[in-house]
Design brief:
single chain; about 600 residues; alpha/beta; Purple Acid Phosphatase, chain A, domain 2; 5'-nucleotidase,  domain 2; 21 strands; about 30% helix; about 20% strand; binds 2-acetamido-2-deoxy-beta-D-glucopyranose; Metallo-dependent phosphatase-like protein; Nucleosidase_C; hydrolase activity; 5'-Nucleotdase_C_sf
């Protein structure tokens, strides 16, 4: 074992010498015209919703740097801060787990992740909802990440219940007061989670409105720091941050309040007043957020704020650090890259189920469309895998929420890693037998179109869709022509030779973010990518008679959307309870999809490999 590890470390180090760093096998980074970072007195690097992508995006040239590269980058940026006599702090706002094989593929989950993640020094860190869905995940967060970041982990509105004693305690300290290294700026920092209710029963999330009334919070907001830093697994447009902001402002009319948010997977920034600023830094370790504050602190004249969304692109990181491919990687960064390589190898993440014949997109193509992953699922995959052997001839409707798919499928090998990337959730098919068709047929439209009706019933229909759509403020009534042109993802790997630095860099597709501050947030200048709104749910049909309507059908759906489905049936006058819902087919959706690929896509891509 030891010798294998050393061998791997050696191989990674040699490769690192050639391509600087990133994972072996990752596509080459592509350069882009760059916008610089504006330094201030106090500067921040921010990650959020990394969801296990600490190995980087091996198939996407814009985001192929890894956690080791970020360790190197932070090292250089701290040194730059020291040279300038200013301060740099690192922030992470949760959802570090679930969504990539590096976390999900081991048993127990996260066998490698916790040690890899802790290699970065993070100054302020909090919890996301994904750390809390499953009791064992929350246990591991409490046993590993909380002690790993003992000084810096904050849980302002989160308690943990010990499985041994049953005792309920704060998950970590409620807030943190500290002085920055170089200027001795006095910081009071909080770490929040939005008013999440889907957590396992070994944690307790206190609604933010109640937390700000707690005596400890009211004391903390009277501590007169130079700056308040509020980090949270909360979208910057969500009401929770506004409640916290109002509570701080009430006692501190002029103190700068800086917010770092996440959860909704978008690049976003806003300010709540002239002395406050808020940033959200995307998702899946595509983005490293940058915020700086300069000018007077705690004065009637407002400070200046800057934000930048840094692509997790090795060439960009080297550019901002002012270093070359040779001088950029630190020994520690290379070690972390090697740790990730070793983990990926031991988890066989590159082992392939089959070869995707083309790209399938979530939102880059409309739905329905031959290039939409949802059309692929609806027409081919679901009818073939959602089959109960005892009821295979019974007419059925199968409803799947689009949020169960979390990433595009790229042409090429569909690997063990891909299965976790596409669908990190352990979604299973459940069903109600023999539902009158007249009512069953109306369920899909209620789930998709009738957001307000669901809202009245206390169920937010948006949560069935992908997080990237939660941020769209108006309740979405899905329309096949709806389209948004900003923000999103996905430049593809190109083979272009970018070695010639005398050439103008080609503009590749990527984030073109528009936020409340303007359109200059992205560090790399990209061509924009189409974004098509998708419905909350899609529906596959099987065995429906051609010319006739069936009396009844089996109504099959993912377990996650059961509350909405039962509500939609109720709105149609049919009262079903949880006891009426049964398991439909063995295995998780992820396993069923992988099985379908084995049977339907070519084993290997092209020739050779
Ligand atoms: C949580 O639920 C499980 C399973 O239903 C139960 O065994 C356990 O006692 C509960 N724990 C707490 C802290 O309520
Ligand atoms: C990097 O790894 C090598 C080999 O395991 C070890 O000797 C060295 O101390 C590590 N360096 C850092 C900075 O982590």
């Amino acid at each position: 074992m030891v010798s294998k590890a050393l061998q791997l470390f050696g191989a990674a180090a040699v490769l690192a010498g050639l391509v600087a760093a990133a994972q072996p096998g990752a596509v080459k980074p592509v350069s882009a015209p760059m916008r610089d970072l504006a330094w201030g007195k106090l500067n921040f690097l921010h990650t959020t919703d990394t969801h296990g992508w600490h190995g980087g995006h091996l198939q996407e040239s814009q985001y192929s740097a890894d956690w080791g590269d970020y360790v190197s980058f932070a090292h250089h940026m701290r040194r730059k801060a020291d040279e300038r006599g200013v301060d740099l702090l690192l922030v992470d706002t949760g959802d570090r787990v679930e969504g990539n094989g590096l976390y999900d593929a081991s048993n127990p989950k996260g066998q490698y992740y916790y040690d890899i993640y802790r290699q970065q020094h993070v100054d302020i860190i909090c919890t996301g909802n994904h750390e809390l869905y499953i009791a064992s995940t929350a246990d591991r967060e409490h046993e590993k990440t909380v002690p790993n970041f003992h000084e810096t982990y904050i849980a302002s509105n989160l308690d943990y219940i010990s499985p041994k004693t049953g005792e309920r305690r704060a998950m970590a300290q409620r807030y943190r007061r500290f002085k920055t290294k170089n200027q001795k700026l006095d910081i009071v920092a909080f770490g929040f989670l939005f008013d999440f209710t889907g957590n396992a029963n070994n944690t307790v999330v206190q609604p933010v409105r109640e937390t700000v009334r707690e005596p400890w919070f009211q004391r903390a907001v009277r501590e007169n720091p130079d700056v308040f830093v509020v980090i949270g697994h909360v979208g910057v447009q969500m009401p929770e941050f506004k409640v916290i902001f109002a509570a701080i402002r009430q006692e501190n009319p002029l103190t700068p309040v800086l917010f770092f948010g996440g959860h909704v997977h978008v690049r976003d920034a806003t300010s709540y007043d002239s002395h406050s600023f808020a940033i959200a830094s995307g998702r899946y370790f595509e983005t490293i957020g940058w915020m700086s504050v300069d000018g007077p602190l705690n004065s009637a004249s407002a400070p200046t704020f800057h934000r930048r969304y840094i692509d997790n692109n090795l060439l960009g990181l080297q550019y901002h650090a002012g270093l070359s491919a040779e001088t950029f990687p630190t020994e520690h960064g290379r070690n972390v890259t090697a740790m990730i390589t070793k983990a990926r190898t031991e988890l066989s993440l590159d082992s392939s189920f089959g070869c995707a014949p083309q790209d399938y997109w979530m939102t880059r193509k409309p739905y329905p469309h031959k290039d939409s992953i949802y059309t692929l699922l609806e027409k081919d995959v679901i009818p073939s895998v959602a089959v109960n052997p005892n009821r295979k001839d019974v007419p059925r409707l199968v409803i799947v929420n689009t949020g169960a798919v979390r990433f595009d499928v790229f042409k090429g090998p569909f690997t063990i890693d891909t299965t976790y990337i596409i669908s990190p959730f352990l979604s299973v098919f459940r069903y109600i037998p023999d539902v009158p068709y007249a009512a069953a047929r109306k369920v899909l439209d209620l789930l998709n179109g009738a957001g307000q009706i669901m809202d009245v019933a206390g169920l937010d229909a948006r949560y069935m869709a992908i997080p990237e759509q939660w941020a769209i403020k108006e309740s979405i009534v899905y329309s096949k022509t709806a389209e948004r042109d900003n923000s999103m993802q996905k430049p593809l790997a190109h083979d272009d030779d970018d070695g010639d630095s005398s050439k103008e860099p080609m503009i590749v597709q990527g984030y073109t973010t528009r936020d409340d501050i303007g359109t200059d947030g992205d560090d790399a200048i990209h061509a924009s990518i189409d974004f098509y709104v998708v419905p909350n749910c899609i529906q596959a049909e099987a065995n429906l008679p051609k010319d006739d309507e069936p009396e009844t059908v089996d109504l099959v759906f993912f377990d996650f959307i059961q509350p909405w489905v039962l509500m939609a049936l109720k709105l149609n006058g049919l009262h079903y309870a949880s006891e009426d819902v049964q398991s439909y087919v063995d295995g998780t959706f992820t396993e069923l999809f992988a099985g379908w690929i084995k049977g339907n896509w070519p084993k290997k891509c092209g020739h050779g490999k």
